[in-house]
Amino acid sequence: MPEQLLHATHKWKNLFKSATTSLLKNRMRSLLTALGIIIGVGAVIVMVSIGQGVRANIQGRISSMGANLLTVSPVRAMTGGVSQQATRNTLKPEDAEALRAQVQELEAVSAVTQSRQQVVSRNGNWNTTIQGGDPSYFDIRNWTLDTGRTFNESEVRGRAKVAVIGQTVVTQLFPNQNPIGQQIRIGTVPFTVIGTLEEKGSGFGGNQDDVVIAPWSTVLYRLSGERYLQSINVSAASPDVMAVAEARIQSVMRVQHGLQTGQADDFEVQNQADLLETASSVTQTLTLFLGAIAGISLLVGGIGIMNIMLVSVTERTREIGIRLAVGARGSDVLEQFLVEAVMLSLAGGILGMGIGVGLAALVTNLMGMPLVISPLVLLIAAGFSGAVGVFFGYYPARKAAALDPIEALRYE
After folding, report:
1. Interior/surface letters 205-222, b for 16+ CB within 10 angstroms, e for the rest
2. Alpha-helical regions (H) of 81-207
3. pLDDT of residue 129
4. What pLDDT, in 10s, does the model give residues 320-357?
């Protein structure tokens, strides 16, 4: 048994040495032959990495909007399959109070209203989004304070003219200054800055740092002059109770709005988890699609390997005849050419992986996305490049093994 193992090891060592010598004898041809595999593997890694980077970026942005977030908003009209603005406002502050009191699965509830207005300080002015909410709004939407404090319940009840501002507003209105305690004017109403928010970056709604957050009562009654809320944001106690919380919210809201059996809801409940799942599904499909397109290059590369190996068989016909004449079996010749094809393909695959990782890092950096390189993708790329070598190298190797020694020796 040890002798058989030693013989097999020696045999394969000679096969790899012979294949390496043959490939290095025609370096340029070998490189050009492997180019299809290099491009194919590199393209697959770049495309898949970009797709996974987009997926991670979208997931991060959705998650930054709030943990276990459910949003209650007025029903929106549909025109040509496109969601339009709410047909009519139906949400009142009392609805938020009812959800807070009656839905046990909720960790936090915040009335939300919004207004876009000009904000003026002693240093300048800036048009920005004014968000109105409860103190819990900061936790629901994952807002973290940088300096100062948030407003409290008594300030919400008293319609206090206090505000917490985002970093974009800080930069525009208070360059190189501490904004805490400073006065700003929103529309015609003076406010005192009591806090600043940590930088959050861009989200689906645009620049999340371009915002002023104040008590919802102040925004609703002192700034917008409206009677209805734009939405109610709630945070479920855990991901496990999201579905139950959604059903309970719907039940309470129907009672609040006096809707009878058979009447359509005049509100809608949007689940952040569903949005995350949908976005992940779309980006995963996109990633697979891009990877499949890039995989076509591997097929082209495999055809190139087959072509060159067939040429190599023709060029080395006399050599093959000599080997067969001195006692080599057809299987030995087949193994020799198959090893050459696999080595060529694997070498192209390894080069392609290196180039693909480098290009993926460059592209994701330029696009401002996280670099996601899955080890599984690298393993699949390496395995697939080896499989391409076996698949497209077998026919030329089989043709070489089937040559008649006498005819091969006569070949010029």
Report:
1. eeebbbbbbbbbbbbbeb
2. 93-102, 137-140, 153-157, 167-173
3. 93
4. 677 667 666 767 777 777 787 788 888 888 888 888 88
Distance CA 386, CA 404 (A): 29
- First and final CA of the chain: distance in angstroms? 43
**Triad 334, 337, 342: Cα angle to 5°:** 115
Element (H, E) at 197: strand 189-197
Q: Is residue 206 classed as helix, strand or coil in its secondary structure? A: strand
Structural contact between residues 135 and 258, judged by C-beta atoms closer than 8 angstroms: no
Nearest to 44 by CA among 360, 274, 403: 360
Dump pLDDT digits (tens) for 18-38.
667 777 777 787 787 778 788
Could you tell me the two tokens for 9? 């090891």
Q: For residue 352, what are the contacts with CB-CB under 8 A and spacing of at least 6?
A: 37, 38, 39, 40, 41, 42, 45, 381, 385
What is the Cα 378 distance to its own chain's centre? 18
Write out pLDDT tens, residues 250-305: 999 999 998 888 888 989 988 876 666 666 677 777 777 766 776 777 777 777 77
CB-based contact 297:105 (threshold 8 Å): no
**Coil/strand/helix, residue 119:** strand
Domain boundaries, the chain: 10-61+278-410, 89-265
pTM value is 0.60
User: What is the distance between the alpha carbons of residues 350 and 127, in angstroms, rounded to a whole number?
Assistant: 53
The count of other CB atoms within 10 Å of the CB of residue 159 is 15
